Amino acid sequence: MKLTSKILCVALGSTVLAGPAIAQEYPERPIDMIVAYSAGGGTDVAARTLVPYIEEHLPGDATINVINRPGAGGEIGFTALANADPDGYTIGFVNLPNLLSIAIQRETDYELSSFQPVADIVYDPGGFGASADAGFDDLEGLVEYAENKSGPVTYGTTGIGSDDHLAALTFARQAGIEMRHIPFSGAADVRAALLGGQIDLASTNVSELIDYADSGDVVILGQMGEERWSEASDIPTFQEQGFDVVMGSDRGLAAPAGFPEDALATLQTAVEAAVADPEFQERAQEQRLPLSFMDAEAFGAKLDRMNENLQGIWEEQPWVEQ
């Protein structure tokens, strides 16, 4: 609390002091931010890029500690967030559709109502990446490669039911080719497997491949947005190449259900200011993060809509064993 605020509170009397002073004390200690994927992946990069700016726009000398809890396609980290004490001092980066699809495809220790949305930060279109020496550089070339290969095309994702997985299933059905899924704990692991020749294809988000494409190590075969992302304007969409695949990953902030309202208001204000901060926007551009801010209410509505849509997809064609 600034000195002028203290003087004002004293002047107004002790009965007035009790309310505002409590609200302005938050946060009184470090906040933990759970990231449900491994260090170095797109989610982790987005979180660590944003954190200093949230700290800057929170009251006092706020500190946020990023804690990676990878595994099970994000379920380990999501469960830890859902089961955390809703005291205002544990938040987490959550990924869509993973947060929702995991709970649809199997029994989990959380459900959508276990979370309090805070803000959506990033919408990252999906993409297919192949090694530079794969011998093909577009989706038509991938289909030809698959048709001539003795076994199925192997592809890595961040887990069963992830946007990467659902996108690959959709593409394989449309292309009429055989593809074998190999899940990993995070995008960094998928990239390492691709560069190490352990898989034929990386199905991940474009932002997680773009630097490797720029260096010449990876070829991005297409991106899954309805339009080309401005930072990858030379890469055609799947729709432009004749495949109706539109898929991507939202990365936003959530907290355990029951998160204190005053803490939520303070945190949401800080997050919105952080995303709008010109310095952060410059850093985000350097990190190739496709920003798409939504406040808690709008993000919550999006979660509800997506959950309903995924339930419909699951009822029509379960994806768990594909």
Automatic annotation (TrEMBL):
Tagged with keyword Signal: yes
Organism: Tranquillimonas alkanivorans
Keywords: Receptor, Signal
Similarity comment text for this entry: Belongs to the UPF0065 (bug) family.
Protein name in UniProt: Tripartite-type tricarboxylate transporter, receptor component TctC
SUPFAM superfamilies: Periplasmic binding protein-like II
Cleavable signal peptide: 1-23
InterPro entries reported for this sequence: BUG, Bug_dom1
Residue ranges of the TM segments: none
PANTHER family tied to this protein: BLR1237 PROTEIN (PTHR42928:SF5), TRICARBOXYLATE-BINDING PROTEIN (PTHR42928)
Lineage: Bacteria, Pseudomonadati, Pseudomonadota, Alphaproteobacteria, Rhodobacterales
Superkingdom field: Bacteria
